[in-house]
Amino acid sequence: MPIRIPDDLPASSILKSENIFTMSESRASHQNIRPLRVLILNLMPKKIETETQLMRLLSNTPLQVDIELLRVDARASRNTPQKHLDKFYGDFERIKEKKWDGFIITGAPLGTIPFEDVYYWEKFTEIVEWSKHNVTSTLFLCWSAQAALKIFYDLEKVTRDDKLSGIFAHQTHHHQHPLVRGFDDEFWAPLSRYAEFNSDEIKKHTDLAVFADAPEAGVYLAASPDCKQVYITGHPEYDAHTLNSEYIRDLEEDLEPILPVNYYPNDDKNEKPRATWRSHGNLLYSNWLNYCVYQVTPYDLSV
């Protein structure tokens, strides 16, 4: 089944060229199906790229999904045309009276900035608190996972001296749980963060189940007992070139980045990187959408 997105959203033509089943709003309006309603709060600078990556993963299930894009405020973006934002992104005030099946909050390039110095921290906190009562399951990615841990559990922000960047091998735990159903014992996933997610601290100070972690990288996947909040500390949605683009950006900004590990063939930045995490990313999003959203969300969201 397809995801339903606006007819002229840039992601639509990209996904169609990849033979991914998308459905225009005009066609979907004639189907008598109750699709899942998924909201995406996109905090990433290159919003078109990020929304395409997420929709690619959300399309890989038998479920029909309606996508709505949300922004945290109306400030201009240096990396996304204002016309695109005004046309496809809504404000929180417009959607907060509705109920949602699923909610994805992306990461943000704010790893070294204290939460209280993030200009939209107050609004972000309001949205996260709102999600507890108005969303069946929320998926927090990377920076937003760290921020949500602060909001829900008062876990202090711990920042690494150097950026954790590359493709890391993670171990799967609790194989019987639906969220990791079908996972290999070990899988690869992209990380790009300054945030520290210590397994022992999270197990000690929260009620979260840790489903995947790595010795050098800490927790990768965790969830509340009812899976209403799911935390991914990496980026399974990334394309093969995304870490390369971030590495070049950091070089240009004189941040002296470390070469992403396990990423470039032979650790040669002139070699073309290959994606080794697509199957994991698709399975993770399919499991979340099926078991944490579809299987438990009410048919009538207003109830």
Automatic annotation (TrEMBL):
It is found in: Cytoplasm. It catalyses: L-homoserine + succinyl-CoA = O-succinyl-L-homoserine + CoA. Pfam families: HTS. Substrate binds at K163, S192, R249. The record marks S192 as: Important for substrate specificity. InterPro entries: Class_I_gatase-like, HST_MetA, MetA_family. Pathway: Amino-acid biosynthesis; L-methionine biosynthesis via de novo pathway; O-succinyl-L-homoserine from L-homoserine: step 1/1. This is Homoserine O-succinyltransferase. It comes from Psychromonas aquatilis. The lineage of its organism: Bacteria, Pseudomonadati, Pseudomonadota, Gammaproteobacteria, Alteromonadales.
